[in-house]
Amino acid sequence: MSTTEVPLTISTKNLTAVFKQNKDLSSCVDEVLKAQGISWTVRTALKYTPIGLRINLYTDDSGVEHLDIDQLMPAGIKSEEPRILDFQFRERLSLVFGPVVARSKRVTIEEATQIHSFLGQGWDDSCAMDGLFYAYARGDPSKPNGLEWESHQIFGFADVPVDEKQTERKYVVRLYFTAPSLDQGVEKRLVYDFVQEGL
């Protein structure tokens, strides 16, 4: 097993780990970031610098699951994305994306496919058994600096071809994104290499 392949001990039931984006295997998301109001300077830096992820899945004292994701970007930019998996709408002000309304929950592969066919594709056997994470978010144009956009993301694990001969288990995010500035919805896949288990 290569050092960047996600071990089978990590799943959507046991997810406390650090990952780094694999730029070669990931879609370019420049048009998405532009629609979300991210500056040209930051977008250009993101084209060449992998994003790091620190992910912590835990259950609070009330028995509700939390999926906290810290995105580590160039120039020391950090985007904290705390998600409570109860599918309740919550408003927050992101330092990167501005005012956002979001909610999250667990879903099956079948439920992901019902949201959008692209979101249900390619997941591994562990996700078929343990499920996936679904995060819905939209910009809030009613607030200062808010922009209109809508994002559907699914998080999980997939066996991804890394070259002509080899496939590796990776942490994957599938995204379906719409915004008035885009002619149509866009489908993106982000692939992340394993760095370490735990934080």
Characterise the protein shown here:
The chain is built from four helices and ten strands, in the order E-H-H-E-E-E-E-E-H-H-E-E-E-E. The chain has 199 residues and is mainly beta. It has one domain (16-194): Beta Barrel (Lipocalin). Strands 4-3-2-1-10-9-8-7-6-5 form a ten-stranded antiparallel β-sheet. Strand 3 and strand 4 (78-84) form a beta hairpin. It is globular.
Features:
199 residues; mainly beta; Lipocalin; ten-stranded antiparallel β-sheet; globular
Q: What's the SSE blueprint?
A:
Elements: E1 16-21, H1 30-35, H2 40-48, E2 52-59, E3 65-72, E4 78-84, E5 90-94, E6 98-107, H3 109-115, H4 125-130, E7 132-139, E8 150-161, E9 167-178, E10 186-197
Q: For the record, what is the CATH homologous superfamily label?
A: Calycin beta-barrel core domain
Shape: globular
Distance between the termini: 21 Å
Biggest sheet layout: 10 strands, antiparallel
Count the beta strands. 10
Count of individual helical segments: 4
CATH topology: Lipocalin
Task: Sum this structure up briefly.
With 199 residues, this protein is mainly beta. It is 14% helix and 44% strand.
